[in-house]
TrEMBL record:
GO annotation (BP), single: methylglyoxal catabolic process to D-lactate via S-lactoyl-glutathione
Protein name: lactoylglutathione lyase
Enzyme class name: lyase
Boundaries of every VOC domain copy: 71-195, 201-327
Binding site for Zn(2+): 125, 143, 191
EC number of this enzyme: 4.4.1.5
Similarity section: Belongs to the glyoxalase I family.
Alphabetically ordered keywords of this record: Lyase, Metal-binding, Repeat, Zinc
InterPro entries, per database record: Glyas_Bleomycin-R_OHBP_Dase, Glyas_Fos-R_dOase_dom, Glyoxalase_1, Glyoxalase_1_CS, VOC_core
Catalytic activity: (R)-S-lactoylglutathione = methylglyoxal + glutathione
Co-factor binding details: Binds 1 zinc ion per subunit. In the homodimer, two zinc ions are bound between subunits.
């Protein structure tokens, strides 16, 4: 496993250190919070114990995140015609339609598709907003990865069904994995990756980021993800980092791509977010705030009015959104 942090040095984020000082004020503020909390804990250790547990020291909560029961639940994005996309994903990509829900008061419909039940698989949540038939995908979103065991066969099937092949099967430039790219009816790219049979065929979400070390620090510290590997491809001037809550061959991962010299992307309005399960949305939000690695909580933790599922939402340092969903509440929603 390659644990080298590409392009370290100038930013040099090392773990065990307090902050990654992109923004100095944030870094210093976080450092101060750490110390304040540590002091408060020592004071409380001799006094009010119940207060100590509510104030939960930053050290504890930053450790907790690594033990939390986390999993990528689904990726959410908008499409212009739900039936058209359902047809393409079921007929060409071999997904199953798992559920559909219409929210007429809010004028939208969701459809969930994937390769297995939602309680154990990473799936796709499509959003159709009444009357909106086109979205801008932007330049920041990359692709979804799908593991297939016979890429030639899959590509031929997609071609036969009238699907768009944007890159024919062959070894990835600068590597060995046989890949192909296809486009769905809205223009979302899917990378097909030839692998043996996989328990989690929907295996990657690729997003482009402006500073890979900043992103790695964020997803490790604020989200408790593991850096699975990085790969620098100088010939093609990009570096990728794979991050997740489990190994790449068994669970879906986030693939972050840094293109040399590109620090900003247009996010469009099509791709929305990834949802991650957690045992505690309150602690989740606290960790994001205390970690001192950028990003921000955009929705304070608490129940969604009406359905009572507890969530919190945040943006990463590039502005990519994640929603954390309470694990127990999520399973109740599936019943
Ligand atoms: N400039 C690329 C960098 C990422 C990249 O090239 N990824 C590889 C897959 S890991 C790829 O798409 N290769 C294209 C090919 O092999 O044809 C981007 O932003 O998409
Ligand atoms: Co990929």
């Amino acid at each position: 496993m390659n644990q080298v942090r590409p392009n370290a040095g100038s930013r040099g984020v090392r773990f065990g250190e307090v902050a990654a000082p992109r923004s100095h004020s944030f870094g210093l503020k976080a450092a101060r919070l750490f110390r304040q909390n540590a002091t408060r804990m020592r004071v409380m250790a001799t006094g009010n114990v119940s207060q100590a547990s509510t104030a939960a020291s930053s050290e504890n909560v930053l450790e907790w995140v690594k033990q939390d029961k986390r999993r990528l639940l689904h990726v959410v994005y908008r499409v212009g015609d739900l039936d058209r996309t359902i047809k393409f994903y079921t007929e060409c990509l071999g997904m199953k339609l798992l559920r559909k829900r219409d929210i007429p008061e809010e004028k939208y419909t969701n459809a969930f598709l994937g390769y297995g039940p939602e309680d154990s698989h990473f799936v796709i949540e499509l959003t159709y907003n009444y009357g909106v038939d086109k979205y801008d995908i932007g330049s920041g979103f990359g692709h979804f990865g799908i593991a297939v065991d016979d890429i030639a066969k899959t590509v031929e099937l997609i071609r036969a069904k009238g699907g768009k092949i944007t890159r024919e099967p062959g070894p990835v430039k600068g590597g060995n994995t046989v890949i192909a790219f296809i486009e769905d009816p809205d223009g979302y790219k899917f990378e097909l990756l030839e692998r043996g049979p996989s328990p989690e065929p929907l295996c990657q979400v690729m997003l482009r980021v402006g500073d890979l070390n900043r992103s790695i620090a964020f997803y490790e510290k604020a989200f408790g993800m593991e850096l699975l590997r990085t790969r620098d491809n100088p010939e093609y001037k990009y570096t990728i980092a794979m991050l997740g809550y489990g190994p790449e061959d068994k669970s879906a991962v986030l693939e972050l791509t840094y293109n040399y010299g590109v620090t900003e992307y247009d996010k469009g309005n099509a791709y929305a977010q990834i949802a991650i399960g957690t045992d505690d949305v309150y602690k989740t939000a606290e960790v994001i705030k205390l970690a001192g690695v950028g990003g921000k909580v955009t929705r304070e933790p608490g129940p969604i009015p009406g359905i009572s599922t507890k969530i919190t939402a945040c943006l990463d340092p590039d502005g990519w959104k994640t929603v954390f969903v309470d694990n127990v509440d999520f399973l109740k929603e599936l019943e």
